[in-house]
Amino acid sequence: MKNVVILGSTGSIGTQTLNVIGRNTDKFRVLAVVAGSNAEKLSEQANLFHPEYVGLFDINAVKNLNLNYAPEIYAGEDVSARFAALEKADIVVVAITGMNAFDGVISAILHQKAVALASKEVLVSGGEFVMNLARQNNVDVLPVDSEHSAVWQCLEGKKSSDVDKIILTASGGPFYNVHSVEELKNVTPEQAVRHPNWNMGKKISVDSATMMNKGLELIEASHLFGTPNVDYIVHPQSIIHSMVRFIDGSTLAQISAPSMELPIQLALSYPERIKTKGFEFNFDKQLTFLPPKEDIFVLPKLAKQCLKTGLGAPCVLNAANEAAVQLFLDGKIGFADIQNIVSEVLQRESIVKLDDCAKIKAEHFKIYDKVLADYKIILSAFI
């Protein structure tokens, strides 16, 4: 029986993690759940699973908890780090959006808890530091992203020296069929979050629509699997989740129905697999592969450049994007402005080496706050 801590339990990945646990109560037990401010949904989850610990980032939301039992309750910005360090915890599912996940990941690693990582921004901004720390503490960082889970499965038992290239697949998002950036200018947040294949949270859905999600995943994959040879291809059906090409020309691909619950389940059960129905692919669909449109969706190209530049470039990229997406969801900028802001910030900012936790977080929030404050000035370069 594994004791599971879920950081970000009320979001899409957190909710689906609880679905997996609910089907496998003989294998997993919810030890702790953490949410931002959604006390109502957190109460529903806690009343169903009865974790020993219930936490909220927002201190003011505690009064809205409505629990039918008496767990230990904690609120505050350090709640993720605190719960990730719980002595009874076996695995910490990190499903918090953005860099707010960073403290929980670091705490879990330092306390030698396995990390099931859905928050790709942690490895984008601090991948070298985080993965080195995980190796030093002999901690498994297990991918929950469908693409990285696919690569992980394809690489199992293989020698790293035999790998030629990792090829991630991208659905293309809801706007792949447009022919110019001009067609993207009037996209609304409601349109951007409607993904054709996946049920995801708002931020990652917008990232998928801009194709930045794939750019972030390229950087994440490079750190997770220790190779710079990472690229992507558009595969609208989201059936092949990623591929690995080996030095002899052979390519392995992982195929399953598009559901996040399968990679979540695999990360939780590792090194075992659980017999499950519903994720099979029945080979009743035509599978297609299309070239990326990096002349329209420029963010993956910028991500590849940042990966090559190294140092703090991916951190700047991630922070600028995180702020720009928030501005878009708040109705302050247009959809096409997201990539304009990220591109301009990368031109303006000095790239410095980030070699510890404090520097990574400080750089991220410096860029994030600067974009929120100065977005009109930044966008003036495109008028």
Count of DSSP strands: 11
By secondary-structure content and strand pairing, the structural class works out as alpha/beta
Mean pLDDT: 94
> What is the strand arrangement across the widest sheet?
4-3-2-1-5-6-7
The helix content, as a percent range, equals 40-55%
Residue windows where pLDDT falls under 50 for at least 5 positions = none
Distance between the termini: 59 Å
Q: What's the number of domains?
A: 3
Overall radius of gyration: 20 Å
Largest sheet: 7 strands, parallel
Order of SSEs: EHEHEEHEHEHEHEHHHEEEHHHHH
Shape: globular
Strand content: 15-25%
What does the model show?
The protein is α/β, with parallel strands linked by helices. The protein folds into 3 domains: 2-144, Rossmann fold (3-Layer(aba) Sandwich), CATH 3.40.50.720; 145-290, no CATH class; 310-383, Rna Polymerase Sigma Factor, Chain: A (Orthogonal Bundle), CATH 1.10.1740.10. The protein has 14 helices and 11 strands. Strand 5, helix 4 (102-110) and strand 6 (114-117) form a beta-alpha-beta unit. Helix 5 packs parallel to helix 9 (212-225) and helix 12 crosses helix 14 (357-379). 46% of the residues are buried. The mean pLDDT is 94.
